[in-house]
């Protein structure tokens, strides 16, 4: 029994040693992986290498978790509506009064106004801004109560993706801005302060541009734009009042005669030079006669 007991104890001791070695080997990669994750997270929030090492966190201190990006609220769809309309009317002034009443009813306003008067027609071009919810009602009112619609073009652009992208970038820049401001308070050298202040200035400029872009998109979404043109043809005073071949032929004959008269009057306007022609002819003949003698 003693001979069997001694080998059995040796086998048990050897198996226990192997098991402890295996556990040590298996546990070591897990620890190193956790350290790698911690280092990676630390590097995500560490300041740029251009800043002095005095501002870097102490390696002996535990790594701080990275700053979580600011949560962006769910953004509603951003739809920009634009339109172009051309309407033929019988009286520009009357149509302009009707347009004014329709604008008041729909809380719209005129951004720009341009009037053009020619021999053939009158044109009043308006750029109208109207609340997004009243855009369709405004279009229907112009189509039904002002005149005959010659052309109409309505477009809708979805800018939700652009708005969301700009909002997320702006939120991240605000986080980094606060981070660099904290670094500026702990800066100990003039060089570090100048470098950090330059980064802060660039971030603030980029944030101003992003905020301006968001305001512009909001304005285009909240107020739609309509380009309205009121057109009135003038009555022709000639016998051939209808615009056709006869009218065009008469106009061509008239234009030809006017062109001929303009040419003739242009020649007459050179009468001082015409007086020189007889003098030049006389001198040339006299010179030729003298040469023969």
Structural summary, described in words:
The chain crosses the membrane at residues 260-284. The chain is α+β, with helices and mostly antiparallel strands and 293 residues long. Among the domains are: 31-66, no CATH class; 76-238, no CATH class. 59% of the residues lie in helices and 18% in strands. The protein has 8 helices and 5 strands. The chain starts with a helix and ends with a helix.
Task: List key phrases describing it.
293 residues, 5-stranded mixed sheet, alpha+beta, flat
> What overall form do the CA principal axes indicate?
flat
Number of strands: 5
Low-confidence stretches: 17-50, 52-70
What fraction of residues sit in β-strands?
Answer: 15-25%
For the residues shown, what is the average pLDDT?
Answer: 75
For the terminal residues, how far apart are their CA atoms? Answer: 172 Å
Radius of gyration: 44 Å
- Helicity range: 55-70%
Describe the main β-sheet briefly: 5 strands, mixed
The strand line-up of the biggest sheet is 2-3-5-1-4
Count of helical segments? 8
Elements, N to C (H/E): HEHEEHEHHEHHH
Give the quaternary arrangement of the chains: single chain
